[in-house]
Amino acid sequence: MNDIQLNRVDLNLLPVFEAVLAEGNVARAAARLHVTPSAVSHGLGRLRQQFNDPLFLKTPKGVVPTERALQLADAIADVLARARRVVGTAEPFDPARSRRRFTVGAPDAIAAVMMPPLLKLVQREAPFIDMALRYVLREAAFAALDARTVDIAVVPIDDVPARYVSKIVFEDRFQIAVRRGHSFAAEPTLKRYCEMQHAIVSPAGDTRAYVDDVLASKGLSRRVAMTVPSFMLLMAVVAESDLIAALPKGLLDVHGARFGLLGIDSPLPMRSFQLRAIVPKVAMMDAGVEWLFGLLDNPPSKASA
What CATH number does residue 75 fall under? Predict the structure, then answer.
C-alpha cells in the first residue's frame, strides 16, 4: 500500500472490523468497543467503502463475514496486534486496571473444569476484565484462532503447527460414568460393559466412536442407545437413566457428585489425552493475551493418566 492509499485509510476502523468479526453481531461488537451500535454500523459503512466489499452480510442471528473479509482477517489482526504491542511498550498492560474482554474457546467438558478456577484468578488479578467462553471443538480450534473469534483455545490435540504457541495445561483420561446404585458398578466387567446401553457425545449424531473400533478388534460390540451434543448434557442423561457413558475423569471429579454419578475404571483400555492451551504467535505480541496465557500455567485440575 503506497502513501497515497494509506492516507485514505482510517486505521481507527480496524478495531471495528475485528470486533464485528469476533462477535458476529453489531450490538455485541458495540458493547465490546464501548460505543453505540450506530457508531459500529457507521464504521462498517466506511470500511466497506475503503475495501470495496460488503465485508459482513446480515443474517437473522447477526452478521457473517464475506470471503474478502476472511481474507483480510489475518492481515488486520496482525496490524492490530503489532499496534497494540507498540502502544503497550509506552503504556504497559495492567490487568488490575484493564477493562478488556478476552474470549476462550474450548469443548464443554474442558470448559466446565477449567473456566471456574481461571475466572477466579482473573477476578482476583483483574477485577475489570470480562471473560467470554465459546464452544470450540478440536477440529475447529485453529480456524477460530485464525479468525480471532477466540483469543486462546484449550483443546485435546497433539500436533500444533509452528505458527502457534502451545503448552500442556493438564492431562486427563476417560472413565465409565454411571448413576449411583447402577448394577454395572458392582460388576464392571467387559462382558457387562458390552451388555449395557450406552450414551455418547456426538454433535452430528454419529453413533460410532473410537471405542467401537477397539471392541470390533476383539470381536465385540455395544449398543449406543442415545447421542447428545455435549458432555454436561450427557451427565444429566446418565444421572436419570440406566445408560452408561465414557466421561473425562477430570469432569467427573469436579462435577460428578452434583449429578450423583460414579466414575469407574473401564474394563476396556481408555486412552488418555493432553489438554493444550494454544495461541497464534502473532497474538502473543499482545501483552494482554500473553498475561491470560500465563494464567494457564496454573492447571485447574490434573487427573492421573
Answer: 1.10.10.10
Q: Is the domain of 192 the same as that of 276?
A: yes
Per residue of the chain (305 residues), what is the pLDDT tens digit?
444 455 566 778 899 999 999 999 999 999 988 899 999 999 999 999 988 999 999 998 899 999 999 999 988 888 887 777 666 555 678 999 988 889 999 999 999 999 999 999 999 999 999 999 999 988 889 999 988 889 999 999 988 999 999 999 988 999 999 999 999 999 999 999 999 999 999 988 889 988 999 899 999 999 999 999 999 999 999 999 999 999 999 999 999 999 999 999 999 888 888 899 999 998 888 889 999 999 997 544 433 32
* Whether residue 73 sits in one domain with residue 167: no
Residue 121 has which C-alpha cell? 484468578
Pick from 296, 305, 303, 304: which is nearest to 114 by CA? 296
Q: Are residues 98 and 48 in the same domain?
A: no
**Domain limits at 81?**
3-90
Contact by Cβ (8 Å): 206, 227 = yes
Q: Which residues have a Cβ under 8 Å from the Cβ of 137 and sit 6 or more positions away?
A: 107, 155, 203
In whole angstroms, what separates CA 20 from the centre of its chain?
A: 19
Statement: the pTM of the whole predicted model exceeds 0.70: no
